Every structure is written in C-alpha cells, then in structure tokens.
Amino acid sequence: MPSGFSGGDTAFVLISAALVLLMTPGLAFFYGGMVRVKSALNMLMMSFVTIGIVTVLWVLYGFSLSFSNDAGAGLIGDLHWLGMRDIGTNALHGTVPIFAFSAFQLMFAVITPALISGAIADRAKFSAWALFVALWVTIVYFPVAHWVWGPNGWLGAQQGVLDFAGGTAVHLNAGVAGLALALVLGKRKGWKKDPMRPHSLPLVMLGSGLLWFGWFGFNAGSELAADGIAGVAFMNTQIATAAAMVGWLAFEKIKHGAFTSLGAASGAVAGLVGITPACAFISPLGSILLGLVCGVLCAWAVGLKYKLGFDDSLDVVGVHAVGGAAGALLIGLLSTGHLYSPAKGLFYGGGFSQLGKQALGVAVVGAFSFVFAWLIGTAIEKTMGFRVSEDVELAGIDQAEHAESAYDFSAVGAALSKALGSTPAAQESANEEAAVAPGTKVDA
User: Fold this and answer.
1) What confidence score (pLDDT) does residue 435 get?
2) Which of the listed residues 60, 272, 287, 389 has the most CB atoms within 10 Å of its CB?
3) What is the distance between the alpha carbons of residues 126 and 43, in angstroms, rounded to a whole number?
4) What are the residues facing 93 on neighbouring strands?
5) What is the percentage of the chain residues whose pLDDT exceeds 70?
6) Cα–Cα–Cα angle for 284, 252, 245, nearest 5°?
7) All domains of the chain in start order, with CATH
8) β-strand partners of 430
9) What is the pTM of this model?
C-alpha cells in the first residue's frame, strides 16, 4: 500500500458511502408515504431511478467534472478521469483510495436530484423526469460540486465559503430546482380544494428514520477519516436533528393545536438539512440553537406556498431550500474557529466576514440552480411534455406510467362484494376468501 494509506479511514468512508446510498430508498419511502395512494409507486420510482442514471453518468464524466484538476477559474474539472480511467487502485485522496472517495461522493450526486422529485409529485411524466435528472446533474450538480468541494473551486477554495457536507451543493441546490420545476409544471388539479393527505404516515416515519440513520454517513463521513472531527460532526448531527424536531412540533402545536407524526418526521429532516453544512464548524450548544431555528423556520416556510401560489407538493422548498440556506448562513454566526476551519462566526468575534461569504454561496448556488432548472424543465415541457394529461393525473400515475400499483385491493374488493350479498352462501364464500378466523361472521 502507498505511503499515507489508512485502512481504518478507508473502511469508515466505504461504510459511510453505503449509509448515504441507503438515504435514497429512505427518501423514496418518506416521499412515497406523503403522496396519495394512486401515485405512491411513481414516487418511489422517481427516487430509485436516480440511482441508475446518476451512477452511469458519474462514471462516464461526472466524477471527473466534479473532482479532477480544475479546468480553469475554479468553475469545472477537466476530463482527465473521463470514464474513471487513469485512476490506479492505490492512488489516494488524502488517506483513502480515490475509488473509495469517488464512491462516497457518488452517493451525494445520486440523492440530490432525487430530493427535487417531491416538489412535482403527482403530475410528472416518468420519462421526462428521467431526462431532467440526466440534464440537471450534468449542467448544474457537477459544476456546483466542483465550485464547493473541487481542488480549486471558486466558492470553496477561492472565496472561502464553508459547506462541510452539502447545505449549498445538495440541499439548497435541490430545493431551489424544485421551486423552478413546480412553477414550470403548475399546480396539481384540486390544489387547495382537495386536502391531498399522506396515504401512509407509518411509511413517512420509516423513511425519515432511514434518512436519519443514513445521514450520519452523509455528515460524519464527509471528514473522510475516522477522527475527532468525524465524531463532532456525528454528535452535532444528532443534536440538531433532535432540536429541530422539538422546534417544529412546538411551532405546530402553537399554530395548529396538535403534535403530528408528519410534523415530527418533517422537523427531523429539517434539522438534518440545516446541520449538514455546519456540522464540523459549530459546537454542540450551537447545534441546539441551529436545530431549533431550522425546525421553526422550516415549519413556517412550508406554509408560504399557499400565500405565494406555487404548488410544492411535498415541501421540498420549505425544508431543503430554506433549511439548506439557513444552515449555511448560520455558519457565519456560529462557527467557533477551532474545529474544522479557523474561520470564526459573528458570535465568536469573527465579525461579518464569514457571514458575507456564506451569503455569497447561498445567492450564487440558488440563482444558478433556479435558472438552469427552469430552462431545462421548460425545454422538456415544450418538446416531449413534462406533465401528464389531466385524465392520468386524476386517475393516478402508477397505472399509466408503470402499469402497476403500490397496493392490490382486488382480493379485498372481491371479498367485500361477496360479503355484501344477501345469501348465506355468499357470506360463507366471503369469509373463506378474506381468511376470516373460523366462527367469525360477516354481516350482510
């Protein structure tokens, strides 16, 4: 093995990569439970298909554009690693093999466009969504990843914008793109009239739990070493997430009079989003403050869509755009200066310097993502069409786009139909088909 190689760090990074991959199925369950039953399968598929599309593009050119040597001005990488060629198995990134680092960063690239899908739930053609994913990661995500994390990226390396694990590059980036697509596709039929309640809150809770679990790989793994900073990032992730859930629930109780399971799940995700850019720069006490702020702020922000008139189906804008921006900006206030970076925030005597840099990162990434997501979405809508027909939307996307449904109610319907018959024989047949316990009577 080459000098500098660490087997412990490599194992840590590979395990973290697997945890981050788990987040995409977790997101699928989280979003899938939030939609109505007629489009649950489509929502799952919109997340899963990003794994296939982005993985192939990452190998072909995505990793090279994001993390190879800078091609000029810190805007994009060169094509030295096109097809992941010329990368030796013993070549290192820090103390871990480049292949391990690439696998870890691939999982970030996979989940970022998947986050966008929640903004356009219930109304997008699957083929159009797949094309959007391919174009958006190429035009937006790969360059932004280079800006923030590239060896000479113009936001991170040159301007000093801090983003440890993806508040700007992942969450703000995806959340703003979700807003652009929601505007391109327009509102769902029945928006504001139909409550459009989640069809499975247990599925939502399961999804949020998987996201919470996988997020430790997302944040702590970004240190790329099993060391003290990884421990700080891990602990701060837990603290901020818990605090945000409490903050969201408190806001919800005051405003709406109830503590909901959807609020608990959404609050946890808001905290995870907010702490992502800041987890290696702030203290545990700062993480409590950040979590409370993000929980309350995102709970308030999800209601803005009704006032501003855009249909963000699953609150991608309120949670990911607002939460990602808030977490990035709070670094400018709460960075202690003695953890991963020497830069101090306003509350630690650093003045407004770092806050200004963070604001620059938020503004640039937000504007870039919105403009190009809107252009890509509009181009797809004007050519192949992005939105399904009204009939398909009302009937449900699952059957039209996938020839399947998430749940099969046919057996239940047949048993119920027979149970409603008037003859004892019909009732007895219904009992048998529904597998009712012996001696149980099905009333007509």
Assistant:
1) 46
2) 272
3) 10
4) 96
5) 92
6) 25
7) 7-399 (1.10.3430.10), 408-444 (no CATH)
8) none
9) 0.91
Could you report the per-residue pLDDT of 295-351, keeping only the tens digit for each?
999 999 999 999 999 999 999 999 999 999 999 999 999 999 999 999 999 999 999
DSSP string, 61-103: IIHHHHHSSB-STTS-B-STTGGGTT--TT-EETTEEHHHHHH
Of 67-81, 167-181, 231-245, where does mean pLDDT reach its minimum?
67-81
Q: Is residue 70 within 8 Å of residue 88, measured between CB atoms?
A: no
CA distances from 215 to 311, 409, 430 (A): 27, 35, 47
Whether residue 180 contacts residue 329, with contact meaning beta carbons closer than 8 Å, is answered with no
Q: Classify residue 366 by burial, with Cβ atoms within 10 Å: 0-12, 13-18, 19+.
A: buried
| Cα–Cα nearest to 328, from 215, 179, 170 | 170
Q: Residue 235: enclosing H or E segment and its boundaries? A: helix 228-256
3-state SS, residue 422: coil
- The model's pLDDT over 149-166, given as tens digits with 9 standing for 90+, comes to 999 999 999 999 999 999
Query: Which residue has 């919105």 as its token pair?
Result: 370
Please calculate the CA angle 201-34-407 and round it to the nearest 5 degrees. Answer: 80
Judged by DSSP in three states, 96 sits in strand
In degrees and rounded to multiples of 5, residue 77 shows phi and psi of: -80, 165
The token pair at 25 is 């199925």
pLDDT in tens, 366-420: 999 999 999 999 999 999 999 999 999 999 999 999 999 999 876 666 666 666 6
What is the rounded CA–CA span in Å between residue 172 and residue 319?
9
Tokens in use for 305? Answer: 């869509």
And the tokens for 380?
Answer: 């797809």
Tell me which DSSP letter residue 168 carries.
Answer: I
Chain centroid offset of residue 92 CA: 29
